[in-house]
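Quick illustration for those who missed Monday's session on complexes.
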Amino acid sequence: MTKNLLRFRAIETVFDRDKDKVVKQESKKITDYFAMNVFTLETMRDFLSDDVYENVLISIKSGRQIDRVMADHIAAAMKAWALSKGCTHFTHWFQPLTGATAEKHDTFFTISSNGKAIENFSGGELVQQEPDASSFPSGGLRTTFEARGYTAWDPTSPAFLMEIGEGKTLCIPTIFITYTGEALDYKAPLLKSMNCLEEAALPVCHLFDRNVNKVFPTLGWEQEYFLVDEALFYARPDLVMTGRTLFGNPPAKGQQLDDHYFGTIPERAYSFMRDFEKEVLKLGIPVTTRHNEVAPSQFECAPIFEELNIAVDHNSLLMDVMDRIARKHHLRVLLHEKPYAGVNGSGKHNNWSMGTDNGKNLLSPGKTPKNRLQFLTFFVNTIKAVYDNADLLRASIASAGNDFRLGANEAPPAIISVFIGTLLEEVLQDIQDRVGDSTKFTEAFKSDLKIDLHNKIPNLFKDNTDRNRTSPFAFTGNKFEFRAVGSTANCAEPMIVLNAIVAKQLKSFKKNVDALIKEGYKKDGAILKELSNCIKSSKSIVFGGDGYSDEWVTEAEKRGLRNVKDTPRALDAYVDAKFVKLFKDCKIFSESELHARHEILLENYLIKNQIEAKVAEEIAMSQILPAAIDYQNRILGNITSAKNVGLVDPSLEVKSELYTNIANGIKGIVKSVEKINTDMEFADSKDETRSSAIAYYDRVKASVEELREHVDFLEKWLDDENWPLPKYRELLFIR
Ligand code: ADP
Ligand code: MG
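Prediction with adenosine-5'-diphosphate bound:
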């Protein structure tokens, strides 16, 4: 029995923290510093001559290749700006498949041929770099003797300054590819998927509006996270090593009272939020909302939506900055999807839509009948795309962490369905009923239908109360909200898939509409007819009921919707012939790239599970078991001494029971650990990564859960002062 346990020292540290000594935050208007660390077009203009600037602008807007001469000009401008801000180094900033962001800093400083020290940054250095890439995952795309990976400048995302302490680095957003151009990151395929979507959406837009020249997806993410004090974090080896607690009983008071949600933000958290928000605002990330989430110590932050590629960069950047600033506050950000069992997990809702260069949101119902038909077109095609490719969407959100969330009784289920609200369900039903199988319809009919939509759609906005929080993919007035995305995810993964499947669907829609027009349909008639076909064939994915209920699982099965619960099996979609063809047609991934990514994702899953199993075993054997035996000895000593002095002990029976309970717990731990080891040996002996990953899911994970049951059981019985790990109530409520 010792108060010297790290747990108690950690608690003391938290109590002793000078809570008033929060980082000074001067209150300036946000507009005074927003994007001050970004090399925006406006900034660029100050550093370039007018004609070079015009040229650059055209290139960036049209996606035209930027030539070497122009790159030299831009590099010089960037360097001048960066030096004026006190920068000494630059880095190509990229998002490899490890899930983190990566950077390799180089200095501007060099020695010129005449031996003089100068600051230098050429177009060549801006455009391409060759980081030592051999340790980034490549899924076999790069053999070690050819370990080169290249980063290539992405001019569509502005360069920015990263301030870390006194150090300032110019970060240049790049894509990361092999020597032969295969993607090793999230960004390259994301940009390709955006092109593909634009290519497919433009001709469909032109059915309604000839003046559209550009279509781009938009993304507004909502990032959920937990905060925990750094001292408590360090006293939990599982949090340190795996990002989640492998053991621990939910506290008596969890989230049942719902008193945390939208409640007052605790002061330390508030101070942290203001601090990191300021940092990210300087980086041009337009964060606007912050609030408590459902669980204690859980929070959310969300920005104004942006063009997709910028939004993806901004979310990756935000996760980095949050982590860094939290440390300054002696806090840790937990981005894991399920840090605590029995407590709400964290997601990252991806609000997705499509915008045009003339300022329209293609998923906004609009005011005129023409706009409504355009809205319905993009709306229905998205639903059809989700229906046809649900497995691929499911794969895009699969990860070891997210497995704990999907289908657990609090997050959207692993069944992909679409929520659209009763009004829109009626509208779609109307279209289907009236257009149905009829081969032609009269003018009267058409205006009829339009009037009907006209009457219903204004009510849509009032219908926002009809928001269903249990749906993995919900229409929320003027955008779709993909809610099943995990909190650690790189948004690019689900967004690549969404862009690709909607692009494919829009292409086929346009083709069918054209065919109908050839058959003699008028344009609007052809569109309605094809919409009706899409509605009819994809209707079963639309679901407005409670996605968390058991009835839905049964109902979904009847509808033929799949419920893939685990990552290794969900990932199969990436190498399914149907989807390989889709990605190839969309020019996003080649078959070998898909196989490589599949391999990387499986490996990632496997390694995470391996680490969890090892950490669980270590904690159970080296921390829990000794504590249990210690307490057992004390009980035994107590019983024996009473006997020795000849006392009749009325509590003897209870003590024996306690002793036996602890003994059972100890035995359970040892047995489970043995089982974990056999299961791991079995899983590791498989030749293929997929079989190995499946064995980890089916067997090892279950054994680790079993071990948890014994440890959590002992937590209930053991002397609190002897328990080595900070308990849930301490992790969640001491701040
Ligand atoms: P909540 O879902 O929490 O009720 P909102 O509906 O206000 O919040 O918006 C959620 C997110 O959706 C915000 O990040 C917002 O920027 C984003 N959003 C709004 N319009 C669009 C759009 N057209 N495209 C993408 N994201 C959007
Ligand atoms: Mg939301």
